[in-house]
Amino acid sequence: MTEEKINTIGDQEIKNEDLTSEQQHYKNHVISLRNKIAKLQFEIDDLAPSLKFHEDALIETTKPKEDQASAEES
Questions:
Q1: Beta strands in 1-74 (DSSP E)
Q2: How far apart are CA 15 and CA 46, in angstroms?
Q3: Is the Cβ–Cβ distance between 30 and 38 less than 8 Å?
Q4: Which H or E element spans position 24?
Q5: Is 29:19 a contact under the CB 8 Å cutoff?
Q6: What is the pLDDT of residues 24-69, one digit of tens each?
Q7: CA-CA distance, 68 to 62, in Å (whole number)?
Q8: What are the φ and ψ backbone dihedral angles of 6, each rounded to 5 degrees?
Q9: Residues 3, 44: Cα–Cα separation, whole Å
Q10: Which pairing describes strands 12-15 and 6-9: parallel, antiparallel, or unpaired?
Q11: Do residues 12 and 22 touch, judged by C-beta distance below 8 A?
């Protein structure tokens, strides 16, 4: 016995075989776009701390020398 694929679209549950070719097309795009967004969000989450580190380092190197010396003594 083959299990039927059910899609939840909005508030409806629709069998895969009942989708028109146009609906299949849209469904495939939705799945693809969600996957791409998830991948890019993962990359953003991975890159954000590195960006913060380098921004902080840049800010630190632009401070006047007296401010750097007093910050190191603290």
A1: 6-9, 12-15
A2: 37
A3: no
A4: helix 21-62
A5: no
A6: 999 999 999 999 999 999 999 999 999 999 999 999 999 998 765 6
A7: 9
A8: -110, 135
A9: 37
A10: antiparallel
A11: no
